[in-house]
Amino acid sequence: MNDAARNNAGHPEWQYLDLMRHIWEHGDQRMDRTGVGTRSIFGAQLRFDLSDDRIPLLTTKRVFWKAAAREMLWFLTGNTNIRPLLQEGVTIWSDWPLAKYRAASGEDISQKDFEARILADEQFAAQWGELGPVYGKQWVNWATYQPDGSGGFRQGPGINQVQQVVESLRSNPGSRRHIIEGWNVAELEGMALPPCHKTYQFHVAGEGESARLNCLLYQRSCDVALGLPFNLFGASMLGRMLAQQAGYKPGELVWMGGDTHLYLNHEHLVDEQLSRTPSSEPKLAILRQPESIFEYSFEDFEVRDYEPQGVIHAPVAV
To answer: Are residues 183 and 108 in the same domain?
Structure first.
């Protein structure tokens, strides 16, 4: 261990780097849905302290936290089309509708041109920018069905899980049912990608002014190199918003992974990132408290003391 590493031995990012190293050196090599292949372990856990505005934002490579923040706010709108994201300059969901359009049309269109068409043509966006009932749809509008009086069923009012959690955190902090679930079995086939970060559970520790809100995120599938840095930031941001809305101090983020993997074509990223040493300790400040969790805007969030090392590019497996 070099001097810099020795001075940062307690940095929380070492958990992530140790997980990455363990998967690459000891993971089970297997083929996967994408055809790229992975090294994978099953069952992993990371823990991060969110008190004093701490945020698990990786420093051993630049993480585009602004895109992660805009994605989280997009989830909370319940929107399932990529057009609002593209209007914010966020392209992280373009790969799936692009692949679908290429397969259906036979047109070898570039991602840049596809995104430009989505932005310019609302009708084209409605047809080809739709992702199906992914995350936000399940979070704020989980489908329900009611008898229609003739032996069949009609669609009932959607369930806003996020609002229910806010209310239950305020009224019944000791509940073990503070859960936001994305894995709707009945609608998986309609989703461009079934939810990877599928289950969020919240836990209130302590009482009174010192009460803290902990967040646990379970991921059924985790791309450690590209996806996990976004997921850690997004889950922490969601936990911070809920804590503010329900009147608690931020507690801890507990992250748990099912199939936790690195893609075989990410070797250069793994080698480069594992050669680096964590540095700064980023903070996430929330600049105001809106009346509702659905009224936050991107301008309400500010990342401070973030001094990341260089970007490490790697392909997304679709």
So the answer is: no
Neighbours of 310 (CB within 10 A): 10
Instruction: Write the pLDDT tens digit of every residue in 179-203.
Output: 999 999 999 999 999 999 999 999 9
> Are residues 189 and 113 located together in one domain of the fold?
no
Question: Residue 290 CB: number of other CB atoms within 10 A?
Answer: 14
- Please indicate whether residue 196 is annotated as part of the active site: yes
Residue 238 in any domain: the answer is yes
Which CA distances in Å does 231 have to 86, 102, 164, 226? 19, 28, 22, 9
pLDDT tens readout for residues 101-149: 999 999 999 999 999 999 999 999 999 999 999 999 999 999 998 888 8
User: Which residue blocks in the chain are alpha helix, DSSP H?
Assistant: 3-7, 13-26, 65-77, 83-87, 95-105, 111-120, 122-128, 135-140, 161-171, 227-246, 267-274
Catalytic residue among 73, 166, 192, 196: 196
What's the average model confidence in pLDDT over 47-76? 98
3-class DSSP assignment, residue 277? coil
Q: Note whether 59 and 279 are within 8 A (CB).
A: yes
- Paired residues of 263 in beta bridges: 38
Judgement on whether residues 28 and 86 belong to the same structural domain of the protein: no
**Reduced to 3 states, what is the DSSP secondary structure of residue 5?**
helix
- Give the rounded percent of residues in the chain with a pLDDT score beyond 70: 97
Does residue 141 sit within a domain?
A: no
Count of C-beta atoms within a 10 Å radius of residue 287: 10
pLDDT at position 8, please? 67
206-248 residue pLDDT tens: 999 999 999 999 999 999 999 999 999 999 999 999 999 999 9
Whether 5 has a pLDDT exceeding 60, the answer reads: no
Burial of 134 (0-12, 13-18, 19+ CB in 10 A): buried
Residue 87, domain extent: 81-130
**Nearest to 46, CA basis, from 7, 18, 72, 65:** 18
In the numeric block, the tokens 């706010």 are attached to 73
In a 13 Å sphere around the CA of 312, the CA atoms on its Cβ side amount to: 21
